[in-house]
Amino acid sequence: xxxxxxxxxxxxxxxxxxxxxxxxxxxxxxxxxxxxxxxxxxxxxxxxxxxxxxxxxxxxxxxxxxxxxxxxxxxxxxxxxxxxxxxxxxxxxxxxxxxxxxxxxxxxxxxxxxxxxxxxxxxxxxxxxxxxxxxxxxxxxxxxxxxxxxxxxxxxxxxxxxxxxxxxxxxxxxxxxxxxxxxxxxxxxxxxxxxxxxxxxxxxxxxxxxxxxx
Length: 214
Known about the structure:
By secondary structure, the protein is an all-alpha fold. The protein has 2 domains: about 1-75; about 95-210, no CATH class. Helix content is about 65%, strand content about 0%. It is built from 9 helices and 2 strands. It has helices spanning about 1-75, 95-105, 110-120, 130-135, 140, 165-170, 180-195, 195-200, 205; strands at about 145, 155-160. It has a two-stranded parallel sheet. The longest helix has about 70 residues, at about 1-75. The N and C termini lie far apart (about 115 Å). The relative contact order is 0.10. Keywords: Coiled coil. This is DUF4806 domain-containing protein. InterPro entries: DUF4806. It comes from Anopheles culicifacies.
């Protein structure tokens, strides 16, 4: 009789073990499903981040391409830029040099042409500020005011009366796509005159243009 009671107990134990294994499998499956869901979410976030970065890169690439094209257009010298010559010119440094150059530009057309050609060959940047110091030294430019008026009792040199030199600066201030007007040059120089004294001590490396590679 005791044998008859052992068999049902054995079956019950096996059934219990089976249910435990099934429960463990269900827990494992549930855990894997949670991990899979988490991975899917992470993958979705990474995909969104990648798409956003690609959009940024594409936008930046388009912007950089446009900026490069504009820079090339601005820096490209005018068509017909003359070849290098032996002509030399140093930035004006004294009032005497200024008063000598002004009438010479009007009277000597050949000299005027050589000077324009020389200065145009020195231009290597789109930054108009530094072209100023191809014509004037920093110390001389600090002695100017547009009308000769000054905050101190000392009169300054009147830049506006040097019309031939201003025209020279207008010519070298342009590029292949832009030629500044006399009004633009006047307003530009008026702004620069306000800070001319402060600019005297700025490093020349920051103000002078790099020379065009010959």
